[in-house]
User: Fold these one by one.
Assistant:
Number 1:
Amino acid sequence: MARDGDLGLGVVEGDVLLDGVGKAAALFPAAFLAHGRFLWLKGHGHKALALSAVPLLAGCDGALSTLAPSGPAARDIAMLWWAMLIGSGLITALVLGLLTAAVRNNGARRSERGWIWGWGLGFTGAVLVVLLGFSLWIGERMLARGDDALRVGAHAAQWEWRFTQPGPDGLPVQTVDTLYIPAGESFDVEITAQDVIHSFWVPQLGGKMDAIPGHQNLHRLRADTPGIYEGLCAEFCGIGHSFMRFTVVAYDPTGPIPDMSADLIPETRP
Ligand SMILES: [Cu+2]
């Protein structure tokens, strides 16, 4: 049987990479303009381009944005995302430069060997190795460490999330679609599912982790500050998939545990 987190590591990395590539393709170069890194560009055309970035960048903030991290795992993912955006931007610039040079070359022949082995294989391979190493390093940092961190449960079923966490008297209580955790402390989520594969995701706290029937994945997270964090199922799991939203309530651990009565699962319910 796979060790806890083994399967999840691959899931996290795959999602991080795919999300990064997709968002990089969608936002570059507009993101750089709006973040003021290439403000030497002058002229009305560039102003129009910068203005066009505004609606795109509106998606960079908000409760479900990976670019508004509120915990160490989410910060690592955001850092990887920015690294991939910058890297893909530089490679795009390189390819466009080579394309321009080829068009201006007027048919003069050059050695193909250096291009194929140097740029085609060497450069591409180096970029992929660096990105793979970076994503593995970040994925490793997200694994549960086997220490005495608080453990909570997340059980996915069509179409709700059932959470288990310490209640006001310290005993475990089950809630539906709301998870209560102390802010500023690392905690591990034991994630599993009842029927089909779902995926636990709180974008502001960390990456995605699959919820698999008959298997338990551990996911280490932390919320830096008290607040309300939005979560959702990130794996299409059937016709009610869009209903599988949930809330993470991070409370001040120096104060009382909040009242959970509105979210408790009735004992009469199967
Ligand atoms: Cu789903």
Number 2:
Amino acid sequence: MERANDEGVTIPVGRGLPGVVVGGKTSGIDLDDIEQFPEDGEGACSQGGALVHEVVEQGAMQLDGESYGTAHQLGLAAQDEYDNSERGPESTTVNPDGTITRTTIYTSEDEDGNTVYTVQEVTIDQNTDQIINVETTQR
Ligand SMILES: [Zn+2]
């Protein structure tokens, strides 16, 4: 495949990065945000899944010149594969204290092949762009 760039991928990594919630368009990865996710995905997004998402996304943008939208979809697919779950509908709520909570429903299978629904609520302080809480619940 023709690459837009053969120089490799550069991803600044830090903690408490302003303007960065996990990662995204800005090409930084915020480890403080990643650490809020469960180590084991528990049926939803894990720390590893979040990291894989951002690295694949940056690779698609920097190496292949993909748009953020396309790169994000590739990142999501890689995350789902890593976590062995499938990301479903997402909604965003503004909380009374001004923080926002993004609620995403994931589906996965238990060892008997039954579908398991997992709700993951990610609460973000928009003033600091920090994830302040991640709650993962199987329904
Ligand atoms: Zn993304």
